[in-house]
Amino acid sequence: MVKTKQGLLDELQARIDDDDPTPELRQGATQLVFGDGNVDADIVFIGEAPGKNEDEQGKPFVGAAGKFLNEMLEMINLRREDIYITNIVKYRPPNNRDPLPEEKEKFLPYLQEQLDIIQAKLIVTLGRHSMDVLLPGLKISQVHGRPKRYKDHVYLPLFHPAAALYNGGMRQTLIDDFALIPAILKKI
For 38, left (φ over 0), alpha (ψ -120 to 50), or beta? Predict the structure, then answer.
C-alpha cells in the first residue's frame, strides 16, 4: 500500500512521541507542536520552537508573530493553506527561552525527515536558530533575503517575524525579503 504524505507525517509525529527525544522539554509543554499546513506545499517555513499560544493550540505560528507572518503571506498572494509551517524544536521551551543546541540537535533528524516527505521547492528559515541548524556557519544579518542551495534544497534565510514585533526597523526588512519569495520560486 502506498502511503500518503499526510500518512507519513502522522507516522513521524507518532514516532517523535514514542522516541521522546527531549523528556525534560516534553514535561514542561502542553503538547507536541508538529507542523501545520499543506503537505504538498512549494514552500516550508521553519521557526525555532513553539511559544505559549502554539503550545496551547498545538499549531505553529498562531501568536503575534504568526499574525504578522499571515499578513506577509497575503502580500505575496499566499495563505496559510498554501504553505507548510513547522519548527525545529517541537516542544515549547520553558519561559519561551531559546532552544538549546542539544535540543535542536535531537529534533534535527525528525525535521529533515519532515522536509523529505513534503518535498517543497523552497525552505524558508525564520530566524537564526533554524538557519544555524540547516545552514551552519552563516550570519543571518549577512545572508537574509538571499537564497542558498545546500544539500539538494533551496533555502531562504529570513529574520524571525517576532524580531519585527520588537524592532520596528526590522519590519520593512522582513517585508522586503518576503516579497522576493515569488521570484525565487519561479527561478527554482
Answer: beta
Q: What string of pLDDT tens digits covers the 188 residues of the chain?
A: 778 999 999 999 999 999 999 999 999 999 999 999 999 999 999 999 999 999 999 999 999 999 999 999 999 999 999 999 999 999 999 998 999 999 999 999 999 999 999 999 999 999 999 999 999 999 999 999 999 998 788 999 999 999 988 888 899 999 999 999 999 999 98
Does domain 5-187 bear CATH number 3.40.50.150? no
Residue 42 C-alpha from the chain's centroid: 14
C-alpha cell at 185: 520560486
Q: What is the pTM of this model?
A: 0.96
